[in-house]
Amino acid sequence: xxxxxxxxxxxxxxxxxxxxxxxxxxxxxxxxxxxxxxxxxxxxxxxxxxxxxxxxxxxxxxxxxxxxxxxxxxxxxxxxxxxxxxxxxxxxxxxxxxxxxxxxxxxxxxxxxxxxxxxxxxxxxxxxxxxxxxxxxxxxxxxxxxxxx
Length: 149
Prior knowledge:
Elements: H1 2-20, H2 44-56, H3 78-82, H4 105-111, H5 132-143
Protein backbone atom coordinates (compact mmCIF):
# COMPACT_ATOMS: atom_id res chain seq x y z
CA UNK A 1 0.00 0.00 0.00
CA UNK A 2 2.84 2.36 0.87
CA UNK A 3 4.50 1.71 -2.53
CA UNK A 4 1.22 2.39 -4.38
CA UNK A 5 0.87 5.76 -2.64
CA UNK A 6 4.50 6.65 -3.44
CA UNK A 7 4.05 5.81 -7.13
CA UNK A 8 0.77 7.72 -7.33
CA UNK A 9 2.27 10.77 -5.65
CA UNK A 10 5.39 10.61 -7.87
CA UNK A 11 3.30 10.15 -11.01
CA UNK A 12 1.09 13.12 -10.19
CA UNK A 13 4.15 15.26 -9.45
CA UNK A 14 5.73 14.34 -12.81
CA UNK A 15 2.44 15.04 -14.61
CA UNK A 16 2.29 18.46 -12.94
CA UNK A 17 5.85 19.23 -14.02
CA UNK A 18 5.12 18.18 -17.59
CA UNK A 19 1.98 20.31 -17.79
CA UNK A 20 3.65 23.30 -16.16
CA UNK A 21 6.35 23.26 -18.83
CA UNK A 22 3.94 23.30 -21.77
CA UNK A 23 3.98 26.45 -23.88
CA UNK A 24 1.01 26.74 -26.19
CA UNK A 25 1.42 30.38 -27.25
CA UNK A 26 2.21 29.45 -30.86
CA UNK A 27 0.61 26.09 -31.31
CA UNK A 28 -0.09 25.13 -34.91
CA UNK A 29 -3.46 23.85 -33.69
CA UNK A 30 -4.32 27.17 -32.04
CA UNK A 31 -7.16 28.61 -34.03
CA UNK A 32 -8.54 30.79 -31.29
CA UNK A 33 -11.40 33.09 -32.07
CA UNK A 34 -10.43 35.77 -29.61
CA UNK A 35 -12.26 39.02 -29.99
CA UNK A 36 -10.17 41.45 -32.03
CA UNK A 37 -9.92 45.12 -31.09
CA UNK A 38 -13.17 47.04 -31.67
CA UNK A 39 -11.32 49.19 -34.20
CA UNK A 40 -10.43 46.27 -36.48
CA UNK A 41 -12.02 46.83 -39.88
CA UNK A 42 -11.43 45.46 -43.37
CA UNK A 43 -9.19 48.38 -44.36
CA UNK A 44 -5.44 48.39 -44.78
CA UNK A 45 -4.97 51.11 -42.16
CA UNK A 46 -6.91 49.10 -39.58
CA UNK A 47 -5.16 45.84 -40.46
CA UNK A 48 -1.81 47.66 -40.37
CA UNK A 49 -2.44 49.12 -36.91
CA UNK A 50 -4.05 46.09 -35.31
CA UNK A 51 -2.33 43.14 -36.98
CA UNK A 52 0.75 43.93 -39.06
CA UNK A 53 2.35 46.33 -36.57
CA UNK A 54 1.67 43.97 -33.66
CA UNK A 55 2.42 40.61 -35.27
CA UNK A 56 4.44 41.06 -38.47
CA UNK A 57 6.40 44.31 -38.70
CA UNK A 58 8.57 43.49 -35.70
CA UNK A 59 12.31 43.12 -35.33
CA UNK A 60 13.69 39.97 -36.94
CA UNK A 61 10.51 39.59 -38.99
CA UNK A 62 9.07 41.99 -41.56
CA UNK A 63 10.43 45.29 -40.27
CA UNK A 64 12.29 47.86 -42.36
CA UNK A 65 15.77 47.08 -40.98
CA UNK A 66 16.30 43.58 -42.37
CA UNK A 67 12.93 42.23 -43.52
CA UNK A 68 12.47 38.48 -43.84
CA UNK A 69 12.08 37.42 -47.48
CA UNK A 70 12.56 41.12 -48.41
CA UNK A 71 8.99 41.80 -47.28
CA UNK A 72 8.67 45.05 -45.31
CA UNK A 73 5.26 45.20 -43.63
CA UNK A 74 5.77 48.48 -41.80
CA UNK A 75 3.36 51.39 -42.05
CA UNK A 76 3.62 53.09 -45.41
CA UNK A 77 5.39 50.13 -47.05
CA UNK A 78 3.08 47.12 -46.71
CA UNK A 79 0.73 48.00 -49.59
CA UNK A 80 3.45 48.34 -52.25
CA UNK A 81 5.30 45.32 -50.84
CA UNK A 82 2.29 42.97 -51.02
CA UNK A 83 -0.44 43.98 -53.45
CA UNK A 84 0.12 42.60 -56.97
CA UNK A 85 3.64 41.47 -55.98
CA UNK A 86 4.82 37.93 -56.75
CA UNK A 87 5.70 35.72 -53.83
CA UNK A 88 9.38 34.78 -53.55
CA UNK A 89 8.34 31.34 -52.31
CA UNK A 90 5.87 30.53 -55.11
CA UNK A 91 6.46 33.09 -57.90
CA UNK A 92 3.31 32.07 -59.77
CA UNK A 93 1.26 33.46 -56.87
CA UNK A 94 0.81 37.06 -55.84
CA UNK A 95 1.23 37.87 -52.16
CA UNK A 96 -2.08 39.72 -52.35
CA UNK A 97 -4.25 39.26 -55.42
CA UNK A 98 -6.98 41.93 -55.19
CA UNK A 99 -10.50 40.49 -55.00
CA UNK A 100 -9.18 36.92 -54.71
CA UNK A 101 -8.11 35.94 -51.18
CA UNK A 102 -8.01 32.21 -52.04
CA UNK A 103 -5.30 32.93 -54.64
CA UNK A 104 -3.33 35.26 -52.34
CA UNK A 105 -0.19 33.76 -50.84
CA UNK A 106 -0.58 35.96 -47.75
CA UNK A 107 -3.78 34.09 -46.89
CA UNK A 108 -2.06 30.76 -47.48
CA UNK A 109 0.73 31.76 -45.08
CA UNK A 110 -1.52 32.99 -42.28
CA UNK A 111 -4.02 30.13 -42.55
CA UNK A 112 -1.49 27.39 -43.18
CA UNK A 113 -4.10 25.43 -45.12
CA UNK A 114 -2.45 25.40 -48.54
CA UNK A 115 1.01 24.11 -49.49
CA UNK A 116 3.41 26.82 -48.35
CA UNK A 117 7.15 27.22 -48.14
CA UNK A 118 8.44 27.46 -44.58
CA UNK A 119 6.17 27.92 -41.61
CA UNK A 120 2.73 29.33 -41.04
CA UNK A 121 2.79 33.00 -40.12
CA UNK A 122 3.17 34.76 -37.83
CA UNK A 123 5.95 32.86 -36.13
CA UNK A 124 8.69 33.70 -33.69
CA UNK A 125 9.37 33.39 -29.98
CA UNK A 126 6.41 35.55 -28.88
CA UNK A 127 4.16 35.15 -31.91
CA UNK A 128 0.53 34.19 -31.56
CA UNK A 129 -1.33 32.84 -34.57
CA UNK A 130 -4.02 35.14 -35.88
CA UNK A 131 -7.56 34.44 -34.78
CA UNK A 132 -10.19 33.32 -37.25
CA UNK A 133 -11.77 36.75 -36.98
CA UNK A 134 -8.48 38.51 -37.79
CA UNK A 135 -7.89 36.25 -40.80
CA UNK A 136 -11.44 36.89 -42.00
CA UNK A 137 -10.90 40.66 -41.80
CA UNK A 138 -7.78 40.33 -43.99
CA UNK A 139 -9.73 38.07 -46.38
CA UNK A 140 -12.49 40.70 -46.55
CA UNK A 141 -9.99 43.48 -47.29
CA UNK A 142 -8.60 41.42 -50.15
CA UNK A 143 -12.11 40.51 -51.37
CA UNK A 144 -12.97 44.21 -51.38
CA UNK A 145 -10.11 44.84 -53.82
CA UNK A 146 -7.13 45.20 -51.41
CA UNK A 147 -7.31 48.99 -51.49
CA UNK A 148 -4.69 51.30 -49.99
CA UNK A 149 -7.18 52.68 -47.49
